[in-house]
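**Fold in tokens:**
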Amino acid sequence: AAFVEIGLTRAAFLHASDISIPQGQTGDLQEKKVPAITSLLREGQEVLVQVIKDPMGTKGARLTTQLSVSSRYLVYMPEIHGVGVSLKIEDENERDRLKECLESQLDFDNGGYILRTAAEGVQEGELLADLQLLHRLWEKVKDRKMTVKAGETLHEDLPLPLRSLRDLFSPDVEKIRIDSKETFYKAIKFAEEFMPECASRLEHYKGATPLFDLFNVEDEIQKALERKVLLKSGGYLIFDQTEAMTTVDVNTGGFVGHKNLEETIFKTNLEAAQAIARQLRVRNLGGIIILDFIDMKEIEHRAQVIRTLEKAMLGDKARHNICEVSELGLVEMTRKRTRESLGHVLCEPCPACDGKGYTKSIETLCYEIFREVLREAKQYENSRLMVLASQDVIDRLNEDDSTYVAELEQFIGKPISFKAEHQYGPEQFNVVLM
């Protein structure tokens, strides 16, 4: 792989398998192996790349040179030939119809296409309009390529409001309310040109109550940031996100079934499966996900919980894979991750615990201070010592631990004074020589 400077804080990552192979290149390519990166790129070379995965955590963005541009119904790939159809369109007759509609309009020397899920049921005229739009867009990209410098943005996707219209609108959507007048007119213009069926459902919201308050959006965001998710039955879920994976623990909580324990567990797990599918989408959790359902003795109950989870995940646009219940009673699954989770986007590590999720107890800190006092007293010649710490720690040293302090003073032969520092965090302290 190569690291590529694209103007961000961290260098981006370009794997050899994501690099378009130059025409006429032979050798190891004949064996369908990924060639060495040194045979494809050299240090200092300028290369046209597209971001396929946002920077996450300590990792830079992931790149590809296999470029593509998207519209409502199509993805255009200039360097690939042929027509593909989204796997989420399962009807074989519809897949064949869409391919025939598109292939009748194509010059296969001019790139390849993927028919998106939204293309299901659309007519040939709409596909042709999308096709022409993508060609105009690609021509603009090629023209701009001649003038931009390395590190500058050559092309970017639509702004968020219009991208949401393009990707999330479906016939099931009753109404789309927009409170910004400027954004509303942009959305109307975009919809009338590319999505006529959507234009009539756009509404400029002029109410006095903010939209987020009207639909309790902030409450839902707050719930999505909580570690604990309550279930209607009285059970609850616990979400823990780490660098390597996300774990979800299912608990019965206060739910007591009407029949027996096994029935209680089964009902809780069924509700949890549906709630987990929704929370994965809302929180945008990806990568490896381990689900710890409550242990079920009956094999049929296990199978039904898995089926419920699979059905609930059908509406998820992110690619995912669900495994069977393991010998330990865990369900392993993966969900494609292309950007940071909601928690990482909206939050930052706690300044008190630095993201650990806990701080040391006051008792533990007091014993650390005692040990530090001993070290300082032995290493340096001084008449007395002063301990600087937060108010809670100083209060304990002066009250509950005053006997230990007196014994320590007698042992080191020096007096110890204390001073509360209101700027200090819960775990911060200093021992100062006086």
Q: What stands out?
A: The chain is about 35% helix and 20% strand. The radius of gyration is 30 Å.
